[in-house]
Amino acid sequence: MAVPDKKDRKRPVELLVLSAILAVFMFAFVLLGTRDVILALEFAGVAFIVGLVVLAMLALAIKPKGAEQADLDEQNAHDIGPNSAGPDDRPRGH
């Protein structure tokens, strides 16, 4: 099984950093508009969570290419063994 490269290991950190940048921007925007720190912190927290969820969903929506697809195919081929259900043993529905 292949070891993930540096880019794959840092992907979660990238999502957190982008969400944090969005939260800081929202904090500054609301603070400059209302001069209320508590309200600005609330908006920043919501922006962080929403940004993190949206970015994670977008990352999941990307179709794997090249080496990533080959790695997924290798993992799927490894899962098929003598005790797994073959193509004839699959449920056929009703």
Give the helices and strands, then pairings.
Blueprint: H1 6-34, H2 37-61, H3 66-79
Helix pairs in contact: 1-2
What report would you give on this structure?
This protein is mostly helical. The chain has a domain at 33-62. 72% of the residues lie in helices and 0% in strands. It contains three helices and no strands. The longest helix is centred in the first third of the chain and has 29 residues, at 6-34. It is elongated and about 65 Å long.
Care to give the gist of this entry?
The protein has helices spanning 6-34, 37-61, 66-79. It is mainly α and 94 residues long.
Q: Keywords for this structure?
A:
94 residues, mainly alpha
Q: What is the number of helical segments per DSSP (H or I, 4+ residues)?
A: 3
The largest β sheet comes out as: none
Helix-residue proportion: over 70%
Would you tell me the structural class of the helices and strands? mainly alpha
Categorize the overall geometry. elongated
Strand content: under 5%
Mean pLDDT: 85
Distance between the termini: 38 Å
Q: Element order, helices and strands?
A: HHH
The rounded Rg comes to 22 Å
Uncertain residue segments? none
How many strand elements?
0
